[in-house]
Design brief:
The chain is of the alpha+beta class. It is 42% helix and 15% strand. It is globular and about 70 Å long.
Amino acid sequence: MSEPLVNDLTALRTRPSRWVDLDALPPLRLKTGGVLPEAARRGLIADLKSEGTAGTAQHARAIRPLLQDADCAALIGALLSDWVEAEQPQADRRWMLFAIGILGNAKTIDLLGNRVFEESQAKQHRMAGYCVASLARSPHPDAPGWLARLSRTAPTPRLRSEAWTARQARPGGDPVMVRSRGFDHHGQRAFRLGARALLLRLQPDGSIAIFEGRKRLKSLPRARKRDDPAAVAAARARFSALKAAVSADLTDTIAGLVESMITGVTVTEWRALLAAPVPHFIVRGVIWEGLVESGDPIRFLVTDEGDALDAAGADLDLDGVTAVRPVHPLGLTDRETDSWRSLLIEAAASPAFPQLDRPTHRPPDPDRPFGSLLAGRPAVNRWQLARTMIARGYTVERGYRIDHAVKLIGPFRITIRHDPYSPFDRAHASLRLQQVMVSHGETPLPRVPGVLYSEIAADVGALLR
């Protein structure tokens, strides 16, 4: 099955970049047995150079599923080391980013996702776009999760839009990425600082506590004289990176759960999410709706011990649950809301985002929901409009003429149009909202789901506060 592909790679006349140390590269084993010949491996590396925005490395992509995953990860690691040692030639930067998406494992896919922010911060916006495109083409199962994260948090509106578009073209993947970051199910992780053996513990607020034996430390201790200064510095850098990663995971978990609650997109890897140590304090304060293969959905709360309770506080069996999502309060009666609120108080669980107390709105005219929403609205100061829209998760494209704001949430694009203004005009004009448009992907929605209308109505109402 793989022989024609091997022959195609061997026959390629393109050469790898000069800085690639072919003799030091790891072998590539086939999943069916045997090792990819050296000439075919050289052809694979040469073919990666054809990957870009206009074309793809067809031969390399075709043989990738036939190769051992661990060997592909080792290969991209070796290529990255050679590239860094060669002082990162700019001419090879683009295809290296795409090669990470083709060959990478979970660790390197995370590096690729984080690189979107690093490249953008360095004003390398084109390279940041290549990172998004690489994730969009990557066969790795973690890539859709990164596209979901970037569609919510990428540093520029253009990058968010690119990630969102790629996400629509690649269905699947949960709205939340589950990461353990090395912590066990008790939320603990061993950590060494020179000769010191420390213990890190996740706290209910998501911070990281440091323990040496039974003593809790306020911060990482100082290095001892016999410690290697370079190793201590590296350990401190790892700790700082760990704190930043946990903070980003918690923020994204909340955003993903809010997205799931509003859009109805379910979390299929929910057992891993509920058992994961990093978002522990988040998932414990959520009222969940579990989908079952047959029958009505069930609603439950998860206790600190991991037990599922219904609104009356009785134990529930979740064996038949296939996926979950947070319940939106629009789907609850007042009595149900009161029951869940009482149970949360009894369990001393504090929700990480507004759920039961979320304001709800129903369209007075379902056939013209936004017409009745915008009718009679007073004009709003343009700076108040811009600040409120950004605070509510909308993005505004900078330019000489601004006439709309956009929010991307799950598969939906929400566009609020208003009177145009120029950010360079010093006049404090008052603007009126003109139109609200909602599309599912690129397709305009003839009717807007009730939950989505409720959220948009809350966004518009915030302008008048």
